């Protein structure tokens, strides 16, 4: 009997050990299931973000979606996106959000931050006081202005998630903050979550990059359509003028029974002007085509810039007299450069032509001076000027700062000028303000530093 | 959550504002707005422990005025519209029923001498001389005292039998301080209570859903709520065999919530079962002793027990149906729910409300509902013995008298 009891006791103990093992296994299973649920939730959130971001029309909206998605995964309370400001390294506060449970919104400063250095390359999750000496601190200061209502027992955890799309299309910084105490069941990201956050960053960057590419493509299509419309109009105008003149001559000679039409000198000059205009437009189009296929190769020769400028001005005498503008020259005796004479002539023609076109009949100042082995050529008018926003794009193809309705041209002149100058190792800059005229400054290497070149232009 | 309109002299408001004073004010304002102009006569406040409790009460009383107020900090709040365990969840109940009486009480020094604390509370109730008391809602500190002992002492001092229900104050599952609310004061290490009397009938039911596992064991050394040894081994050594904890510093509330002790009841109850559930809430890392707010004496026979999600919901619904069956065709004025924090997110995750709370609420239909996630639950299992429970849910419905 005692043996039987002992045997049962031992069997009971063995069974109990099995129970313990089973409980431990069940707990491991339960923890794994929780972990899997959390992972699933993350990938669902990413998937939802990607779908929604595909419909977004602005990078700011993409950042808003990212904030809302991360609020679903981590118990942050505030989020603020910093978006590109007015220049490299400058940021301004963009969209901001409070988690649903906070239910409040505030305003943030419109001031810009200049970041001392670059955006961090990976997420930062820490207490805010750990960022006291960081260049990122100003971002937190701006976040303070969201007027988050203080809880009595405030902690302060922050997550900084840099968003750096390829080609720095729209660098941004997402800042999340948690101020009130965390319960045991609330979890903020830790080191082990950084690969996931990096994945989030990749999704945001890709969404922004895709949006930028899509918008660029849309803009390119718009510009192409606009250019085709302008080009048709510009080519049509001189042709119409020529056709009308020829029809008039034909009618007159028919009426008068003349075998050889009588053409007056003003009519001849008008014909020549319109043909020159037509030739110039066609030449611009060919020039752009050559630039695009890389066939604009300078044929270098030594030339005098002063003589060239005087010659170009001479060609524009009729236009100067029609518009009422006059040229004030500040030129040295000579300014020798090695350059393709024809291409450089085109640069100066484009600049002086623009100065006359937009100069509103006022003085045009043209100067040349030498500085550190470079020739600085300035062409300045006192006309309508160009707004700061437009200055950034007027050197691009088909870009115009003014309406094609009021001012003719294909919008190619400055693009061609910059391309030619780049080929010559030079550059072109603009200073302007609306209503105060424009100053174009061309820098070209002097003779000694000019690039040698024997290729023929094709 | 959008508060329902409450037609029975009852208003319930809630707030998620991070600013504690504003949260109290907002929740109270919402609740009062549902009284249709009647002045509030009593208030219950439950709020997440992320709040500054004093500021929260200041805000609530700015809207409520000097009405008697009771309540405590919580690990989550439960409303008809949903469940929220965020640290800033806050809710305020107001009652305006003129045929009911409301008196609030407090007793401090709970951890130092739980029996004396309970006794003092009972004496204050007796001394107040309220004759029509029917339901005593009690909210002891969830971590510092021996709740079983306090309840026993309290019941001994009461001038007449009343139904007792309630829960111990919770917090962020981080073993921080818990708060008990009494009128305008936020206390800790205390018991607060409200005695409700007059024209109503309280119905209380309690249920758990833990399955005993393994062999029966005996508490071989215990004192003042601390269990030192089970079957002669340090209590923690017995416990840890089920948990795979390498470092005792890793211990969190989630470990304590995972496995519990089932104490054999001297008299099994046909509805409730044979065991009452006990959960340790503190560990003495030096001696390996575990503190159980439900007192466990030397010689108590126990088994380890695990929560069971499926039976949790099924038994909770049965508990609700039991209450309804006592009042066929009637709808309660309000249902109060005191539900263990270990049965919420730790068992059901983010789907706690739809999985485990809404099915119980559906038993009663659309009635005013207020509750909180506790560190322990208080109710009689057979309308006679008021006991302290863990891993359990107490439903307390107030019917017309």
Tell me what you see in this structure.
The complex is a heterodimer of chains A (458) and B (401). Chain A has 458 residues and is of the alpha+beta class. Chain A has 3 domains: 54-213, GAF domain (Beta-Lactamase, 2-Layer Sandwich), CATH 3.30.450.40; 216-272; 295-457, 2-Layer Sandwich (Heat Shock Protein 90), CATH 3.30.565. Chain A has 10 helices and 13 strands. Chain A has helices spanning 2-55, 59-73, 137-144, 194-256, 265-293, 305-315, 317-323, 341-358, 388-391, 413-423, and strands at 78-84, 90-98, 112-114, 124-127, 157-163, 172-178, 301-304, 326-330, 336-339, 363-371, 374-380, 427-432, 438-445. In chain A, the strands form 3 sheets. Chain A has a 6-stranded antiparallel beta sheet, with helices on both faces. In chain A, strands 8-10-11-13-12 form a 5-stranded mixed beta sheet, with helices on one face. In chain A, helix 1 (2-55) runs antiparallel to helix 2 (59-73) and helix 5 packs across helix 10 (413-423). The N and C termini of chain A lie far apart (115 Å). The relative contact order of chain A is 0.07. Chain B has 2 domains: 10-206 and 312-400, no CATH class; 210-306, no CATH class. In chain B, strand 2 (42-48), helix 2 (53-64) and strand 3 form a beta-alpha-beta unit. Chain B starts with 9 loop residues before the first strand and ends with a strand. The model of chain B is unreliable at 1-6 (pLDDT under 50). In chain B, helix 7 (309-326) packs parallel to helix 9 (352-364). Chain B is an alpha+beta fold and 401 residues long. Chain B has helices at residues 20-33, 53-64, 114-128, 147-157, 235-240, 253-258, 309-326, 345-348, 352-364, and strands spanning 10-15, 42-48, 69-74, 77-79, 82-84, 90-95, 100-108, 133-140, 163-167, 180-182, 185-187, 190-198, 200-208, 210-223, 226-230, 233-234, 259-269, 273-278, 282-284, 289-291, 301-307, 334-340, 369-374, 377-380, 386-389, 392-400. The longest helix of chain B is centred in the C-terminal third of the chain and has 18 residues, at 309-326. Chains A and B meet through helix 1 of A and strand 14 and helix 6 of B.
């Amino acid at each position: 009997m005692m043996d039987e009891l002992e045997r049962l006791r031992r069997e009971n103990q063995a069974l109990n050990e099995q129970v313990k093992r089973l409980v431990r296994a069940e707990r491991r299973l339960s923890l794994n299931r929780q972990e899997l649920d959390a992972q699933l939730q993350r990938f669902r959130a990413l998937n939802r973000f990607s779908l929604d971001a595909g419909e977004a029309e602005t990078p700011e909206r993409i950042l808003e979606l990212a904030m809302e998605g991360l609020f679903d995964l981590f118990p942050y309370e505030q989020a603020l996106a910093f978006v590109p400001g007015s220049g490299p390294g400058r940021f301004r506060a963009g969209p901001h959000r409070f988690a649903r449970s906070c239910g409040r919104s505030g305003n943030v400063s419109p001031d810009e931050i200049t970041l001392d250095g670059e955006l961090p390359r990976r997420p930062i999750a820490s207490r805010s006081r750990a960022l006291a000496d960081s260049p990122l601190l100003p971002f937190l200061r701006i976040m303070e202005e969201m007027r988050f209502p203080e809880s009595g027992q405030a902690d302060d955890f922050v997550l900084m998630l840099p968003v750096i799309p390829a080609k720095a299309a729209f660098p941004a910084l997402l800042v999340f903050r948690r101020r009130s105490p965390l319960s045991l069941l609330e979890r903020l990201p830790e080191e082990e979550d950084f690969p996931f956050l990096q994945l989030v960053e990749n999704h945001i960057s890709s969404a922004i990059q895709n949006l930028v590419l899509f918008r660029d493509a849309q803009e390119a299509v718009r510009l192409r359509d606009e250019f085709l419309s302008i080009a048709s109009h510009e080519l049509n105008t001189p042709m119409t003028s020529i056709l009308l003149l020829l029809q008039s001559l034909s009618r007159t000679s028919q009426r008068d029974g003349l075998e050889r039409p009588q053409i007056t000198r003003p009519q001849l000059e008008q014909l020549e002007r319109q043909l020159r205009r037509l030739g110039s437009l066609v030449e611009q189009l060919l020039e752009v085509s050559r630039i695009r296929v890389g066939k604009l190769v300078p044929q270098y020769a030594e030339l005098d810039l002063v003589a060239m400028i005087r010659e170009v001005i001479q060609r524009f005498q009729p236009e100067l007299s029609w518009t009422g503008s006059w040229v004030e020259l500040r030129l040295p005796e000579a300014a020798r450069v090695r350059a393709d004479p024809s291409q450089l002539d085109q640069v100066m023609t484009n600049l002086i032509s623009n100065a006359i076109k937009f100069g509103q009949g006022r003085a045009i100042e043209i100067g040349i001076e030498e500085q550190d082995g470079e020739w600085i050529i300035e062409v300045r008018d006192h006309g309508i000027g160009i707004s700061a926003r437009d200055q950034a794009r007027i050197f691009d193809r088909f870009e115009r700062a003014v309406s094609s309705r009021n001012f003719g041209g294909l919008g190619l002149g400055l693009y061609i000028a910059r391309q030619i100058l780049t080929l010559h190792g030079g550059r072109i800059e603009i200073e302007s303000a609306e209503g105060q005229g424009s100053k174009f400054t061309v820098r070209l290497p002097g003779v000694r530093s000019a690039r040698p070149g024997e290729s023929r232009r094709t | 959550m959008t508060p329902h309109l409450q037609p029975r002299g009852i208003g319930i408001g809630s707030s998620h504002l991070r600013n504690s004073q504003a949260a109290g004010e907002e929740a109270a304002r919402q609740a009062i707005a549902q009284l249709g102009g009647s002045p509030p006569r009593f208030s219950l406040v439950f709020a997440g422990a992320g709040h500054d409790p004093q500021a929260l009460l200041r805000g609530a009383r700015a809207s409520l005025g000097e009405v008697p107020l009771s309540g405590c900090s919580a690990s989550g709040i439960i409303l008809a519209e949903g469940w929220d365990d965020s640290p800033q969840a806050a809710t305020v109940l107001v009652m305006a029923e003129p045929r009911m009486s409301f008196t609030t009480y407090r007793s401090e020094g709970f951890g130092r001498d739980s029996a004396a604390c309970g006794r003092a509370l009972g004496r204050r109730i007796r001394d107040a001389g309220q004759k029509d008391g029917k339901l005593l809602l009690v909210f002891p500190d969830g971590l510092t005292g021996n709740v079983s002992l306090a309840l026993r002492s309290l019941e001994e001092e009461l001038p007449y039998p009343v139904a007792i229900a309630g829960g111990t104050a919770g917090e962020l599952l981080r073993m921080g301080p818990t708060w008990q609310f009494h009128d305008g004061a936020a206390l800790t290490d205390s018991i607060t209570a409200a005695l409700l009397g007059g024209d109503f009938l309280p119905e209380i039911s309690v249920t758990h859903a833990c399955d005993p596992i393994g062999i029966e064991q005996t508490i071989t050394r215990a004192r003042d709520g601390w269990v030192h040894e089970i079957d002669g081994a340090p209590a923690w050594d017995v416990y840890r065999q089920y948990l795979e904890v390498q470092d005792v510093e890793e211990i969190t509330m989630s470990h304590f919530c995972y496995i519990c002790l089932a104490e054999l009841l001297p008299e099994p109850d046909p509805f409730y079962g044979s065991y009452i559930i006990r959960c340790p809430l503190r560990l003495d890392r030096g001696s390996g002793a575990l503190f159980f707010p439900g007192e466990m004496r030397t010689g108590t026979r126990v088994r380890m027990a695990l929560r069971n999600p499926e039976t949790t919901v099924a038994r909770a619904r049965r508990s609700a149906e039991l209450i309804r069956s006592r009042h066929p065709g009637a709808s309660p004025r309000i249902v109060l729910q005191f539900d263990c924090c270990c049965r919420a997110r730790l068992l059901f995750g983010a789907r706690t409300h739809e999985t485990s709370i809404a099915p119980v609420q559906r038993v009663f239909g659309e009635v005013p509902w207020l509750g909180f996630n506790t560190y322990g639950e208080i109710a009689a299992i057979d309308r006679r013995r008021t006991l302290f429970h863990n891993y359990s849910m107490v439903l307390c419905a107030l019917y017309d008298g």
